[in-house]
């Protein structure tokens, strides 16, 4: 039976002649480093979960913005269509409406100034 080699019984001088205390010191350092690594992995895991929640929230906001932009695009498209129809009509009618509106605004301003 081998006494003092690698295959010796626990508590003997294994590991090439080092005492059991050196082995325990290595085990304690390994345990400390393992615990440190475990805490870092836990922190990274929680951070990645938070990032995932934030990404889901941002995707939801982007989807809402996309639908709002689509509705706005439809509204602007209809407005541009109406403007095209209006521009194809007679220009004299449009000019007459603009002149009447200008006269109305002029009289309202004149009346406000006169009442002071």
TrEMBL record:
Subcellular location: Endomembrane system; Golgi apparatus membrane
Subcellular location, principal: membrane
PROSITE patterns from the UniProt entry: T_SNARE (PS50192)
Annotated InterPro entries: BET1_SNARE, T_SNARE_dom
Membrane topology field: Single-pass type IV membrane protein
Segments traversing the membrane: 94-113
Highest rank taxon of the organism: Eukaryota
Domain spans labelled T-SNARE coiled-coil homology: 24-86
Keywords: Coiled coil, Golgi apparatus, Membrane, Protein transport, Transmembrane, Transmembrane helix, Transport
Transport recorded as keyword: yes
Statement: the UniProt record of this protein carries the keyword Repeat: no
UniProt protein name: BET1 homolog isoform X2
Organism: Mesocricetus auratus
């Amino acid at each position: 039976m081998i006494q003092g080699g690698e295959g010796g019984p626990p508590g003997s001088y294994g590991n090439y002649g080092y005492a059991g205390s050196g082995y325990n010191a290595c085990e304690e350092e390994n345990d400390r480093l393992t615990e440190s690594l475990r805490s870092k992995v836990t922190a990274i895991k929680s951070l990645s979960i938070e990032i995932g929640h934030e990404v889901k929230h941002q995707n939801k906001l982007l989807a809402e913005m996309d639908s709002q932009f689509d509705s706005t695009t439809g509204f602007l498209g209809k407005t541009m269509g109406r403007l095209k129809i209006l521009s194809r009509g007679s220009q004299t009618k449009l000019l007459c409406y603009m002149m009447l509106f200008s006269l109305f605004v002029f009289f309202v301003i004149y009346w406000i100034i006169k009442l002071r």
